[in-house]
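Students often ask why we bother encoding 3D structure as a string. The short answer is that it lets us treat folding as translation between two languages. Here is a chain of 249 residues written in the first language.
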Amino acid sequence: MIRRTKILLFFSMAFILAFFVSYSNSQAQIATTNDLQQFLAMNSNLNFQDFSAADAPDFGTIGPCSSPVNSNSNDICFSPGDILPDIQITDGPTPGAFLVAGEDLFNFDNNPPNVLTDETTANSVINIEFNPEISAVGLTLGCFGLVAGCNSTITVEVFGAGNVLLGTTNVNATSSINSFIGIVAQEAITNISLSDNNIDATMGILDIRFGEAGATRNVPTLSEWGLITMAVILGTVGFIIVRRRQVTA
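And here it is in the second language, the structure alphabet:
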């Protein structure tokens, strides 16, 4: 009878553990870092996309560049093949066009050359789509102001299959266009949305690194409640076993 009870308790524990592991996996999470070198050390085999092919003039811009920006782009900014086939960049909420900013835009923004920026300032949104899906992405971001310099906050939303929101983070952006954000997700990433409600600034993207994360995705982890429940279960099982041994002694 005691042996049967132990077996029953064992399988009950296994079932509950599996449930909480499954539950934790379904609640997708993202990990972020602002350290470029750390991100690259952990994710070494990523694709790299910049916008140097546009060859924007110093102190000015080149454009308009048609939206979406992808491997088929064929305009004043990009030729077919300048953009990798696995990535597509669109602007919103009303589709418009992009510009590529040259170094030190308007002679007062201390930015590097060839930064992709939305032509619109008010309520600008930039979407970056990945096909096939990825699990790691790094972005170098910044902003351009209507007056000398800018200081803004860019909201970065990470989406997975079925447009499910995996996580959100914020990036402090300046006209130096050197704010890095690295993201690794447990679930597949299908697209990234960048938004900035600063009507006196527009977002800028210097480069994008993307691909499969160096670490394995979907590593089972227990949620907080899962850990608490497991502790209670283990304590209860231990108590029952001790009590039964005392009774049979």
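Translate back mentally: The radius of gyration is 25 Å. Keep this in mind for the problem set.
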